[in-house]
Amino acid sequence: MKKIVVLGLSGLLALSSLFVSCDSVKNANNTQKGAGIGVVAGGLIGGILGNNLGKGGNAALGAAIGAAVGGGTGALIGNKMDKQAREIDQALPGADVERVGEGIHLTLNENAVRFDTNKSTLTSAAKTNLDKLVPVFNEYADTNIEIFGYTDNTGKPEYNLTLSGQRAASVKSYLISKGINSGRFKTSGLGIADPIATNDTPEGRSQNRRVEFAITANDKMVNDAKVEAGK
After folding, report:
1. What is the radius of gyration, based on Cα positions, of the chain?
2. Where does the secretion signal sit in this chain (predicted)?
C-alpha cells in the first residue's frame, strides 16, 4: 500500500498541538481513561484535527480523521478499516490509499479516475476502475463515503467550483448505479483547492482533476463496536 498512517493517541495529541492551545490539549488529556483514549477525547481531538485540516489542508483527510471515536471502540473500527484499506489497494493499485485515525483517505488520481478538461463525465477507464471498488464497498457496507471533487486552475474559480461538484456527483451516481446504497454518500465540490501537483504543466493539471474519498464508520458500525468493546 502506498501510504498507511495510523495515528494513535500520541500522534493525535502531537498533531492537535499544532492547531489548539496548550490548555485545550491538557483538557483532552484529562479525559483519558486507562491505557487507551476515551470516547470523548477521541471525538474531541478528531474533531479538532478534522476541522483544521479541512480548512487549511486536505478536506477529505480532515473528514476521515474528524470521525474518530477513540477508545476500545475506535480500535475495533480501526481494525476493520485496516482490512478494507488493504482490499482497496489490492483492487485498485493506481489509487492512493491512506489509513488515518479510524478512517480511510482515498485519492483517485489520473491513474484511476481521470477527467478531461471542463468535463465531469466518467471515461470508460474511470468506470472500469470504479467497478473494481464496488465489491469492496459492498463488503464493508457499514461505512459512510464522502466524495470530494477537484479541478485544475483552468477557467474561472466559480465555474471550477461547480464543475468539481459535478465530478463528485458523477462518481456517486455511478457507484449507486452499481448497487451501492445511496444513503452512504455525501459529495462536495472544492474547485481548485488542495492541489496535489503543479498547475503549470499539463501533467500536473491532469493530476489535480481528481476525486478523493473519506471513508468512515457509520452509526451501525460504531454501535456494534461499542457492544463488542463492552463485552
Report:
1. 18
2. 1-22
Cell 473528514 sits on residue: 63
Helices and strands in the chain: count of H runs, count of E runs:
9, 5
**Helical (H) or strand (E) element with 195:** none
Give 174-227 pLDDT, tens digit per residue.
999 999 999 999 999 999 999 999 999 999 998 898 999 999 999 999 999 999
Lookup: cell for 14: 502531537
CA 52/CA 29 separation, integer angstroms: 19
Contact yes or no for 131/178 (Cβ under 8 A):
yes
Expressed in percent and rounded to 5, the helix, strand and coil fractions of the chain are: 55, 15, 35
Q: Are strands 185-189 and 143-149 parallel, antiparallel or unpaired?
A: parallel
Question: Under DSSP, is residue 135 helix (H, G, I), strand (E, B) or coil?
Answer: helix
Domains of the chain: 9-229 (3.30.1330.60)
Cell digits of residue 9? 493517541
Instruction: Report the alpha-carbon distance of residue 21 to residue 214 in Å, rounded.
Output: 27
Please tell me the number of Cα atoms within 13 Å of 12 on its side-chain side. Answer: 34
Longest CA span, the chain: 56
